[in-house]
Amino acid sequence: MELLFVASGAALLAGCLICLGIGPRRPCDVATGAVAVTLALVVLLGKILLLLGIFRPVPVAVAATCCAAAAAGWLFISDRARARALQTLRTIRSGTRRIRFAPVGCIAVGAVLVLVGYEAAMGSRLPPASWDSLYYHLISVAEWVRTGHLVSPLPGLSRGNPVYIYFHADSFPKDDELTAAWFAVFTHNTQLVGLAQVVYAPLLFGGVYGICRHLDVRAGLAVVAAAIATFTPAVVQELATNYVDVAAAAAVLAAWQFLLSAFPATPVEEDPTAPKVRSLVLAGITFALAAGIKSTNLEYCLAGLIIAVGLCVRESRRLMRAARLAGLPEPALPRPGPCMVALAVPMIALGSFWYIRSWFVWGSPLWPIQLGPFPGAVSATQFTNVGGLQIPLPLRGDGGLLLILRSWAFPGLSLGDIWLYVLLPAIAVAIVIAVRRRRLMPVAAAVVPLFLLDMLSPGSWEPRFEIPMIGAGVVALALVCEAIATPASAAARGFVRAATRRDALASVPPPAAPVPAALLVGLLVPAGQRASLPPGSVPLPAAAASPGAVPADAAVPAGAVPAGAVPAATPALATVPPAAPAPASSAGHVRAATRAGEAGQRGGRAGRHGRPGRVSHRRPGASSRRLTSAGRRLAATGVSAVAITMAGTTAWATVNSMSDWQVAGTVRHTVRLLAEPESARQNLGPWQAFNAVNNLLTAPGAVAFFANNAPMFALPLAGMDFERAVVVLPPYQPVGIAGHSTTSSRKWLAQRLASVQRATASFGAMAAQMRRLHARYLFVPAGSLACLDLMVYTPAQLRLVSSLTEGPVFELTAEAAGQAGRQPAS
User: Fold this and answer.
1) Phi, psi (5° rounding) for residue 404?
2) Nearest to 263, CA basis, from 222, 215, 298
3) What is the DSSP track for 558-603?
4) Other Cβ atoms within 10 Å of 387 Cβ, number
5) 200 neighbors 40 (Cβ within 8 angstroms)
6) Is 8 helix (H, G, I), strand (E, B) or coil?
7) Which listed residue, 253, 261, 417, 669, has the most CB atoms within 10 A of its CB?
8) What are the DSSP E strand ranges found in 639-760?
9) pLDDT in tens, 155-178
């Protein structure tokens, strides 16, 4: 366990240093980026060490320590990386100084910490008991830990010897299984594998929080939105299991955060190129992690590339229009080509590993899914729905959109009342508000893509596949609450107030020509908000001594300068001391003014409450407007408080009624179980019967099963400490010895003798195959033809060891075993 702490601490240190060297631009990006880079580094080290055949505790710890040393050396050698790291640390320091106490947000964070701690306790102290964990997710982990090599989870499994229900144990992406293997390689058992998804909880929380912050949602509302996403019943049920849906959704949302960090709603950098590339590199790394966890995330990766190009083109046009209106030279513009490269290169380099391996081994990168030109055994919809058997009986026959809509209100499939009555309406309201205010970027770049992509995914009627849709809903709720707290008129006044502040422009060299206030209004205030400006709200200074100059008391309607007028400089620009000569490219002035003005969109808070920089023109009704603004903020806080209360109540009901897919019982029952000694905790669920049988399997050797008589759970056959391999025999050919329906005793005797002869030959060949695969034991599912034949006529090569509810276990006799005591070669 000491090596586990050393390796994990070194990997976390390396991830933090790499993230600082990349240089995120906001504190929320630093936190999420450190977690994402650490997880990506963990799975990358796992792949390399498995390919080298040295996936053992000491090599893993040494490799993680070397990565931390290499990251530190990179920061020490590279001046640019060190400068970016120092700038990021200064950003974090300044961000922590602006933290304000928000009661609802603090309560939400505390509740999230309690929930994650509870799930971590279950994941670390209880053995895996959920269906898919025992079925196919962890059998790969068991074989990697046992052999130290990147081998098939079930030796003998191939396209020539197929086992339909275990295809995906070898062909699906397995980055989350590598996260579980990171813990299991140090313990060599199932003790800590339940933490594989718990470590993605900070990524889920940080991804939703970061998306909201980049869409200009205030911090308190962003915290509430992230907490609601964590309290979703699908997340609560699955967090301590070895399913992969929480990890897949968390990686997608974190990648979307970095995508929006490159193109935020409010610019935060003067250089429009380099910071975008660095944010897109983080997005590419996280998209690669998402693709390596689940193949359905490929559609999010493709959508991310398209949206990145669209946002890049939008940003370039905005900067060009700003420079043209200000009469300044053309600034440096972000180009789609470098942005695409920065996003696609890490995405392909880090996320294509499992697809290339599956293509090489199985003949298709998406095997067993048939899609487009790639062959497969089944379509995506049939695979997800298990041929329709997975769909509840009342919903069968409904297809496509109708099935998804009905599932939202169906007991057992519902995402909770908060989705149906709060989050789903919030998506519609957010779209309406965006259209009315003519500010479509937040919903077009985040809410709508996440919602539609999840709706179009196969099996999206299941709650565990709808976590990205929940992310879209909570972001929409945060946008609606922000709109409640910030009316359009206040946002428009905030644009002008922030744009005319001395401290917003004093650090920027003055332009070659003064920028009029009316031009700033037309440049900074969105078209949908200009009409909300009251008359006379943009006063201009005294008229310049030139024909057609604008009078001092003239109101500027809709941000337009009268024809032929030569407006004078604004008071803020006129009083800026010309400390330095104007540079050749003075587009930085327009960019800084744009950034300062757009900062006012977050509620027009700049310069309020008598702070320095507030416009001194006190107009009638200012107190009433201040009260109205406070009332709006109170209303937004109330809506968020109601939403987090509903989410917390749903999470508590989920935990207390079923706890999760690990334990069926109340919280009190689960806490009592967690306090039990290890011997009692190891007998959870199906482990009690399999542990009793494994105690009887004293001889070394693998456990085999027939390809057409596969067990429902493969991991219990390997044992809780991964001591045995589980191998696949060729399909069983029935010999018809179980019984005959003839009435003639002579015919029955003749058929019986023929069946015995066939059985003797068949079972002799089976024993030879078991020796070839070094298998000592044979498991046959109860009720199968192989079980019926073996229970009626047990050949001399086998003896019955134990009978489980799932089926009997046979052992090769010492004479027939030969070399079966050896484990299969790696």
Assistant:
1) -65, -45
2) 215
3) GG-PPTT------HHHHTS---SPPPS-THHHHHHHHHHHHHTTTT
4) 11
5) no
6) helix
7) 253
8) 702-706, 726-729
9) 888 877 777 778 788 889 999 999
Question: Are the C-beta atoms of 782 and 705 separated by less than 8 Å?
Answer: no
DSSP summary character for residue 330: P
pLDDT for 752 equals 59
Taking the CA of residue 4 as centre, how many other CA atoms within 13 Å lie in the half-sphere pointing to its CB? 14
Here the tokens at position 12 are 């976390």
Burial of 240 (0-12, 13-18, 19+ CB in 10 A): buried
- For residue 356, which amino acid is it? I
Cα separation, 163 vs 707, whole angstroms: 5
Give which of 250, 239, 243 is closest to 114, Cα–Cα: 239
CA distances to 15, 390, 581 from 385, in Å? 38, 5, 68
Give ∠ CA 385-424-480 in degrees, rounded to 5. 150
Taking residue 360's Cβ as centre, other Cβ atoms within 10 Å add up to 9
Using alpha carbons, list the distances in angstroms from residue 676 to 1, 191, 661: 21, 14, 19
* 706: phi then psi, degrees, rounded to nearest 5: -80, 145
Q: Which of 288, 264, 278, 260 is nearest to 344 (CA)?
A: 288
Please check the confidence at residue 608 and state whether its pLDDT lies above 80.
Answer: no
Q: How deeply is 110 buried, as exposed, middle or buried, from its count of CB atoms within 10 A (0-12, 13-18, 19+)? A: exposed
Extract the tokens encoding 360.
């090489």
Distance CA 138, CA 159 (A): 21
Instruction: Name the one residue in this structure whose structure tokens are 């044992």.
Output: 719
Q: How many CB atoms lie within 10 A of CB 536?
A: 12
How far apart, in whole angstroms, are the C-alpha atoms of residue 47 and residue 178?
8
Closest CA to 17 of 58, 66, 55, 60: 66
Q: CA-to-CA distance for 228 and 645, rounded, in angstroms? A: 9
User: Which distant-in-sequence residues (6+ apart) come within 8 Å of 113 by Cβ?
Assistant: none
User: Does the bond joining 368 to the residue before it have cis omega, within 30 degrees of 0?
Assistant: yes
**Looking at the chain, how many residues does it have?**
826
- CA of 770: how far to CAs of 142, 199, 500, in Å? 20, 40, 82
Which of 259, 252, 250 has its CA nearest to residue 229?
A: 250
Provide the whole-model pTM. 0.81
User: Range with the lowest mean pLDDT among 252-256, 287-291, 633-637?
Assistant: 633-637
Let me know: does 195 contact 123? Beta carbons within 8 Å.
Answer: yes
Residue 143 — very low, low, confident or very high, per pLDDT cuts 50/70/90?
Answer: very high
CB-count exposure of residue 300 (10 Å: 0-12, 13-18, 19+)? buried
The 10 Å CB-count burial string (b at 16+, else e) for 186-220 is: bbebbbbbbbbbbbbbbbbbbbbbbbbbbbbbbbb
Distance (Å, whole) CA 570 – CA 517: 6
Structure-token pair, residue 10: 């070194």
Report the 10 Å Cβ neighbour count for 373: 6
Query: Mean pLDDT across the stretch 194-212?
Result: 94
Query: Which amino acid makes up residue 161?
Result: N
Residue type, 180: A
Backbone φ, ψ for residue 777 (5° rounding): -125, 155
What's the start-to-end Cα distance of the chain, in Å?
A: 26
DSSP 763-824: HHHHHHHHHHTTEEEEE--TTSHHHHHHHH---TTEEEEEE-SS-EEEEE-HHHHTTTTSPP
Work out the percent of the chain whose per-residue pLDDT is above 90: 28
